[in-house]
What does this fold into?
Amino acid sequence: MGSYCNESYAEFLDSLKAAGVVIRNENEVRERLAESQRWRSAFMTLAANGRLLGIEFSVAGQGGDPRAVQRVMAEHAFPAEKEAAFIAQLTADR
It folds into this structure.
């Protein structure tokens, strides 16, 4: 990947939280992403299938802004279709 997306998974998760995303079982998420060389793919897998592990992503009340979440994902080099899928999941769970 290019130099514009060298951010770590930790910076990404912190940015998501700042955008209003609540991460249930965050320690498990961090451990799994730390073990992965392709943390973006691992993140999307956890977002889609993590409930069996107690991992969930949600927005706190009115605190989540889909545009802010989209910006965070774009800044961390997620493809647009992955951004859309994650945001759809967040807004569907409201």
About this structure: Confidence is low (pLDDT under 50) at residues 1-5.
